[in-house]
Amino acid sequence: MHIKDFLKEITEASGVSGYxxxxxxxxxxxxxxxxxxxxxxxxxxxxxxxxxxxxxETPRRSVMLAGHMDEIGLLVTxxxxxxxxxxxxxxxxxxxxxxxxxxxxxxxxLPGIIGSRxxxxxxxxxxxxxxxxxxxxIDVGLSADELARTVRVGDIVTLQRQxxxxxxxxxxxxxxxxxxxxxxxxxxxxxLAGMKHTWDVYAVATVQEExxxxxAMTSTFGIEPDIGVALDVTHGNMLxxxxxxTVAVGGGPAIGFGPNFHPLLxxxxxxxxxxxxxxxxxxxIPGPSGTDAWAMQVTREGLPTALVSIPLRYMHTTVETLAxxxxxxxxxxxxxxxxxxxxxxxxxxxxxxx
Amino acid sequence: MLKELSEARGVxxxxxxxxxxxxxxxxxxxxxxxxxxxxxxxxxxxxxxxxKAKGSGKSRRKVMVAAHMDEIGLMIVxxxKEGSLRFRxxxxxxxxxxxxxxxxxxxxKVPGVIGxxxxxxxxxxxxxxxxxxxxxxxDIGASGKEEAERLVKPGDYATFDTAFNELGGExxxxxxxxxxxxxxxxxxxxxxxxxxxxxxxxxxxxxxxxGLRGARVxxxxxAPDIAFxxxxxxxxxxxxxxxxxxxxxxGLGPAIxxxxxxxxxxxxxxxxxxxxxxxxxIPYQFKQPGMGSTDAGAIHVTREGVPSAxxxxxxxxxxxxxxxxxxxxxxxxxxxxxxxLLKVNDLDLTR
Lengths: 354, 351
Fold this sequence. Notes:
The complex is a heterodimer of chains A (354) and B (351).
Chain A: H1 3-12, H2 21-32, E1 37-40, E2 46-50, E3 62-68, E4 73-80, E5 83-89, E6 101-105, E7 109-114, H3 124-127, E8 138-139, H4 144-150, E9 156-159, E10 164-165, E11 170-173, H5 176-192, E12 200-206, H6 214-223, E13 227-235, E14 254-257, H7 263-275, E15 281-284, H8 292-296, E16 305-312, E17 320-323, H9 324-339, H10 343-349
Chain B: H1 2-7, H2 16-26, E1 32-35, E2 41-45, E3 62-68, E4 73-79, E5 85-90, E6 102-105, E7 110-114, H3 124-127, E8 138-139, H4 145-151, E9 157-160, E10 165-168, E11 173-176, H5 179-191, E12 199-205, H6 213-222, E13 226-235, E14 255-256, H7 267-279, E15 285-286, H8 295-299, E16 308-316, E17 323-326, H9 327-344
Parallel strand pairs in B: 3-12, 3-13, 13-16, 14-15
Antiparallel strand pairs in B: 1-2, 2-12, 4-5, 4-9, 6-7, 6-9, 7-8, 10-11, 11-17, 14-16
Helix pairs in contact in B: 5-9, 7-9
């Protein structure tokens, strides 16, 4: 599928952490076209294998690409006078929830609104306060009786947003964090279809990243790859945020550098980008990266990991914004990086022969 | 009709698209129509059977029914060198609801998003602080000022991009933007399909949200004997700890105003509305006194004064990107207004 169409399809779909099934099926259908085997692991991560072409003497090597398909969302905690109270799943900015449209996954999907008391009835003080979670509610326009028949405590709620094309190749939607990474992996698989590579490639759409990197832990353990590359989003430049905290949207793959990443993998990614003239940037990360790479690195006996990030503005809102060309660049960079993996590099990394 | 009206874009001062939709809908049901200097659409539907008016020497009564076409929105005021757009609110917008919303800018509907610094980059204090409009900007994807200037210009209006949808259920709830006051426009369009024993002036007004500007001049031109303003009004019936009045409640019928910040309603008109509702078994409610203001505030002090009333459809979350109302309330408002208008000719307005 065309990358933009695939990105639109998966970002408009629902898949809150722990409830990724709807988006998983879309990813499964897409990855199936470019890979040899597919399965979902116990926690729900989708694992697709594309085998490398190698001679019998060459030891089997594998690289795992991980992008998480879960998104932050809400969970119904109480039915009250025809309204729904809720808790958050993942890290939310309460400031962006008021006036937001949602989809409540009850007996059927119910469109709803996170209501705001009208400004007309608020005191000056109330207008200046961010509405705390215990004063927020969802309205689906049903009477209390109807609501009780249709929704129950524990039902999942996703935020609503249609995929929007902005000017200058930029697009905006919810859940680009981190389905844009799933689109990068898809782009990589499409490139690899026309390239030669000797290492096996595991294309993994992980689950429950937003609630603690859970999918990356179990899928990496199960796959036992030689090296791992996590794909995630990182803060893009925007008005009012210091440049030092951001990378440039449209400035190409942001390649992570720091304790979470193997220096040789970092160098190989940068060299590959330079060799093939792919615009790229370095993202220094002095500690925890907060990505699947953090979990992958310490799986079993540990493995060399890397992180390639998509510059993105307004993270964890329904108007996350990124440049499509960055996704295409990352897909191409990953494919070129993978096709260049060989035994000499395995030796440099000190990988064991199994 | 409400869907088309709700999805149309018409911020105060730029009501032309809404006006065109309304004109197309009413032109075959009225005798005359014109657009005045401010942009109000004023339509006249002449009274039927006037010649048979029971010879009581009654003069030809003029009744004005007003609903405003404009909605709250944003105006682009500056293009930054990075290509982001600075904006200011048009009308009373709650700055708490602006972050992370999608908007459409100008006649070309250029899509943009109101960006919000990621929660990861905020300190604990900032997370508790409502962002100020002055600090916000709209991102249209432009990489610099020049690219942005090809798409938008300072002065362009922006509206929320919100689809109209039916939510279903007993309330027949619908959601969309600008129910304040496209709900009133929809009711007035319906009312024009009936005949009345007096001259009915339908005024689809402009610039209500910036100070009841359109209604003032429309009422002067019409010089009505009686006026009604139809509104989509404040509703505050959500659950909360401290129990204050809900202002209005969705589903309980059209809300009759007794007094708001701009007018004390002529009690003879309130009584007529209530009596009509009860005789016809139409549900109704009173709006909590002292809240909001409407076109009637301008109309009732026009020329030497005009007895005026306000009837409104309760709408939750007005002045935000998405509001909700019950089609039952809307239908009941049409019924109540229709029945009331049929009697208004006989109302004794002498003092």
